[in-house]
């Protein structure tokens, strides 16, 4: 079963051409837990749902990589294109969750 899941994830990754730098370093469960901590700060700094989703994922990604690996993705040679590609991918993965966070905090 694990082999099937790995194969499916590998195919998805190859189809989307996701940056290997992020794929090797992100634990989805830990990322999600870290994302929850920034909801209130990002909500007040956003003017729309789309802006909230982008800013929350971007801030969480930057913090996750920095605190876990001591790498500043804005300064350490990670291309802006790779960063944006992975942010868009994470926004797709967590879309329903991000919408729920936004609506829950809004009410």
Report on the architecture of this protein.
By secondary structure, this protein is an all-alpha fold. The chain has one domain (19-106). The chain has helices at residues 2-16, 20-23, 28-37, 39-44, 49-69, 80-93, 95-106. It is globular. The model has no long low-confidence stretch (mean pLDDT 87).
Q: How many domains would you count in the coordinates?
A: 1
- Work out the radius of gyration: 14 Å
Largest sheet: none
Shape: globular
Compute the number of strand runs: 0
- Give the overall pLDDT as a whole number: 87
Strand percentage, roughly?
Answer: under 5%
Order of helices and strands: HHHHHHH
Helix content: over 70%
Secondary-structure-derived class: mainly alpha
Q: Which spans of ≥5 residues are poorly predicted at pLDDT below 50?
A: none
Helix segment tally: 7
Distance between the termini: 41 Å
Short description:
This protein is mainly alpha-helical. It has helices at residues 2-16, 20-23, 28-37, 39-44, 49-69, 80-93, 95-106.
Question: In terms of topology, how is this protein built?
Answer:
Blueprint: H1 2-16, H2 20-23, H3 28-37, H4 39-44, H5 49-69, H6 80-93, H7 95-106
Annotation keywords:
7 helices, mainly alpha, 107 residues, single chain, 0% strand
């Amino acid at each position: 079963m694990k082999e099937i899941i790995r194969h499916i994830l590998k195919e998805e990754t190859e189809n989307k051409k996701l940056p290997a730098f992020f794929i090797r370093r992100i634990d989805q469960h830990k990322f999600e837990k870290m994302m929850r901590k920034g909801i209130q700060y990002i909500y007040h700094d956003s003017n729309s749902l789309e802006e909230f989703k982008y800013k929350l994922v971007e801030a969480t990604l930057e913090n996750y990589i920095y605190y876990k690996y001591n790498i500043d993705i804005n300064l350490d040679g990670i291309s802006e294109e790779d960063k944006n590609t992975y942010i868009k991918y994470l926004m797709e993965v967590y879309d329903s969750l991000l919408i729920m966070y936004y609506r829950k905090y809004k009410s």
